[in-house]
Amino acid sequence: MPIYIYEVQDENGEGEVFEVLQRMGEPALTHHPETGAPVRQIITAPNLVLRHSSRADAQIMSDANLKRTGFTRYEKSGDGSTYVRTGGDKGPETFKKPT
């Protein structure tokens, strides 16, 4: 299960930051589980497997494993606003980042 990060909303729009272990299918929290204060979910970058990762990590992100598990990998191309499918076989071949 992934860990989600939430921030308590105070008068300034900022507050305590806390983490919650939740299933992906569960809805995002709207209130702090202990205090009941309003919260917002913070979107963070996922933990990515890069070229300098271990051999096991690289195998998990291999084209064959991505295709077998139904995932797709995209990488930036050209000016950085176009993404090209480099792993898996689901989704479009390319797409442009919305402006």
From TrEMBL:
All copies of domain Putative regulatory protein FmdB zinc ribbon, residue ranges: 1-44
SMART domains assigned to the protein according to its UniProt record, in alphabetical order: CxxC_CXXC_SSSS (SM00834)
UniProt lineage: Bacteria, Deltaproteobacteria, Bradymonadales, Microvenatoraceae, Microvenator
Top-level division of the source organism's lineage: Bacteria
Biased composition (Basic and acidic residues): 87-99
InterPro entries in the record: Regulatory_FmdB_Zinc_ribbon
Protein name per UniProt: FmdB family transcriptional regulator
Region called Disordered, residue ranges: 75-99
Source organism (scientific name): Microvenator marinus
